[in-house]
Amino acid sequence: MKYWPWMLMLVSSNLMAAEHQVSGVVDIRVSHTDSITSYVDGGLGKFRFNPNGQLSLAQAGLSYHLDWENPFSAHVVANAYWDGVRDNIGFTEAYFKYKGLPWDNGLRFSGRFGLLYPSISMENIATAWSSPYTLTYSGINSWIGEEVRHVGGQLSIEQLGKFSGSPHDFKLTAEMFQSNDTTGAMLSWHGWTNSSRQTLLQEKLPLSELPSLNAGSLTEQARASDPFLELDNNIGYHLKTQWRMQGQGRVELGYYDNDGDTRVVKEGQYTWLTRFTHLGVKWRLPYRIELITQYLKGDTLMRAPSGINIVDNDYDSGFILLSRKWQKHRLSLRFEEFSVTDNDLTPDDDNSEHGNAATLSYGYQWHKGWFLQAEYNRIDSTRPARTAQGYDKRLIEQQWQLASRYYF
What we know:
It is globular, with a radius of gyration of 22 Å. The chain has helices at 4-17, 139-147, 185-190, 211-215, and strands spanning 19-34, 52-67, 72-82, 88-99, 107-116, 150-159, 168-178, 205-206, 224-225, 236-245, 249-257, 265-266, 269-270, 273-285, 289-303, 309-326, 329-342, 353-367, 370-382, 394-407. It contains 4 helices and 20 strands. Residues 3-11 have low confidence and may be disordered. A hairpin with a 2-residue loop joins strand 12 and strand 13.
């Protein structure tokens, strides 16, 4: 006990010596959605907002960065929403970061530990994991924001080409993680979405009124999925390689495996084995056009305690985004295709779907940090499970949004 005053003085001294930085985003939107009940509200609609028009606080994000006078720093992100569906506030990221100085040969080590997004998204690069390109994320990054997050550690080793006069950089990243054993449940039971909502740490995600949940093969499943749950104590991993050409762009290839033990079930929460490969390219084209394209392909499996496959799905999604920024304007166009293939023999739980999506977004910088943005979204998808709830198997969903976003 006699050491506590000295420890408190040391921590206080370190905090005083550190550099504190606070940034954030406030996103207020008017939206009109021509769709069915949103997946956020337990429906099968693929947009975040419920049908018809509304005014909402789409995101109030706050990022706190603490940088010591050494290679270590800390980063905490909180988000809040007031959208009439699940009004809430909570944490979305919290981690320590290490970024060492390059060695004489150009090698540099870095790492992170805590509540993390896997290093996948090429869209969500702005404050509080927002996107500067569009108001809604692609299907890939909507899924990552909903249920592909974890608690773990990341280590990267990078070869910087400038130390040898080369424009090429190479980077290898390895992550080990836990607390994501239900990843795959929401992708299976409501499919791909175009959203702008990140799941908060304390949130559980409501499931749709599927026949299999009420009086069928999934009656033991909880009516809400907990996306940050650890059930089997296994450690998952994510490996990624990156090649970057200075002044031009980068190419990334990675593999993700949560190593879920599908025999483990606790209080209606099943362990899912979810794996995927992802490929991404971010490149500068002529006429100052920025190209971002990503493709993700994988599988997910959920079993009954008896060992029978209940949900066995393959899935894939890809998009191409073109964006051009000039003066105070930015215009972005994104095209997507997606699918889920149902491989199991469960008769009352058809998770298959396929479709495409398009997004057109225009942004104008009104003042420093203040942007006005208008966007149109369209999704054309076929999902047989909708017919059990009285909807058409094929739906064309549309959404119009006007946003005032302030970054500080």
